[in-house]
Write a structure and sequence with these properties.
Blueprint: E1 17-31, E2 36-37, E3 41-42, E4 46-64, E5 71-76, E6 79-80, H1 85-95, E7 105-113, H2 124-141, H3 148-162, E8 174-177, E9 190-192, E10 205-209, H4 220-225, H5 233-253, H6 256-275, H7 286-302, E11 307-310, E12 316-320, H8 325-336, E13 345-349, E14 355-356
Parallel strand pairs: 5-7
Antiparallel strand pairs: 1-4, 1-14, 2-3, 4-7, 4-8, 5-6, 8-9, 10-12, 10-13, 11-12
Helix pairs in contact: 2-3, 5-6
This protein binds (3R)-3-hydroxy-3-methyl-5-(phosphonooxy)pentanoic acid.
Length: 359
């Protein structure tokens, strides 16, 4: 599909008001997206696990207005919030061509996260996907007649324009975004991974260790930009393609040892790109490294398949198969929690994607 296919053409402009509500999860990339072209087009394909417990719940109320500006109020966790408004304004500007009724209504956006705001967990993926889904439900309220496939694709397309990785939060359990050798994948939206997945990956566990709950020193917007002219950029983009092909084979075979190698290498490569950009920066903290070393030791000594991945921050996502749930959780409590801020970690599991909440 092309971008033009997502332009809403006809809608019932006599609808005065209404409200919609969605909850949408976060996701954790196994093959990382880092570097983009114009219009949020990724430089390389990525694949992620959709999560279950870390999610954003958003209610969008719309009321017809006369003025032709963008008009919205934002409530975060029950309180009016000005800080997030510029991001929403930019989002509206980017998607206006595809969602032409945005200036016809005043919007009240009421949003909250299931995870603490200052946890260092990026809420942009769950937040932007929840908002995109609400807008899609309004399109339906205004008379659009969509198949669930088109609905999800356009929701993902819109979410991508809010925050790239948000396009992988609509469906579960594995989502691919970005052109690659699979005919179905697209740079414009994420799709549910349609390859074979071994039962070893059923209910895969993700425990998020909150090493640093503060604001990141370098935003991912800046990080992506630093891939322009980066000395290793082209090799990195080629490697992501290779790693995705390898990972697809591993997902089918259930070879957990190979899974661990690809996933950890991707996480370290992401951070290596940050450390070798100009200006260079480091988002890992000493405790991030303490945790990684402990995980390697535990894996070695216990014949375990536990591994780590990182997003653009200091927190560590500990990934492990369901049959190791008890032993790895014990290990986390005993040996890793001390490296977390206030001993705080969040247990999560791979999930099936966003859900409409009944009005
Ligand atoms: O969606 P953004 O622009 O915040 O980028 C996120 C990039 C990583 O989380 C570091 C990797 C990924 O693929 O999610």
């Amino acid at each position: 599909m092309k971008a033009e296919d997502f332009i809403l053409k006809n809608y019932n402009s006599s609808v005065e008001s209404g409200s919609v509500k969605w909850e949408s999860p976060s996701n954790i990339a196994l093959i990382k997206y880092w570097g983009k072209k114009e219009n949020q087009i990724p430089e390389n394909p990525s694949i992620s696990f959709t999560l279950s417990n870390c999610k954003t719940i958003t209610k969008l109320t719309y009321t017809k207005k006369e003025t032709k500006d963008f008009s919205f109020d934002l409530y975060f966790e029950g309180k009016q919030n000005e800080a997030f408004k510029p991001k929403i304004q930019t989002f509206f500007e980017r998607i206006e061509t595809y969602v032409p009724f945005l200036r016809d209504y005043h919007f009240k956006i009421e949003t909250s996260n299931t995870f603490p705001h200052s946890s260092g967990i990026a809420s942009s993926a769950s937040g932007m996907s929840a908002l995109a889904l609400c807008l899609m439900s309004i399109e339906v309220d205004l008379g659009a007649d969509y198949t669930s496939e088109y609905f999800n694709k356009k929701a993902s397309f819109l979410a991508r324009l809010g925050s790239g990785s948000a396009c992988r939060s609509i469906e579960g359990e594995l989502v691919v975004w970005g052109q690659n050798e699979s005919a179905e994948s697209s740079d414009l939206y994420g799709i549910k991974f349609d390859g074979e997945v071994h039962s070893n990956f059923n209910n895969y566990q993700d425990t998020i260790l909150l090493v640093d709950k503060g604001e990141k020193q370098v935003s991912s917007t800046v990080g992506h930009k630093l891939m322009y002219g980066h000395p290793f950029a082209q090799q990195r983009f080629a490697q992501a393609h290779e790693n995705l092909a390898k990972l697809k084979a591993v997902l089918a075979s259930g070879d957990l040892q190979s899974f661990v190698k690809i996933v950890e290498s991707e996480a370290l490569t992401l951070h290596a790109m940050m450390m070798t950009s100009m200006p260079y920066f480091i988002l890992m903290k000493p405790n991030t490294l303490e945790i990684i070393n402990k995980i390697w030791k535990h894996r070695e000594e216990n014949n375990s398949n536990v591994c780590f991945t990182l997003d653009a921050g200091a927190n560590v996502h500990v990934l492990y198969p369901e049959n190791e749930k008890e032993s790895v959780l014990n290990f986390i409590k005993k040996e890793l929690a001390v490296f977390c801020q206030n001993g705080h970690f969040i247990t999560d599991v791979v999930g099936k994607g966003a859900q409409l909440i009944k009005k």
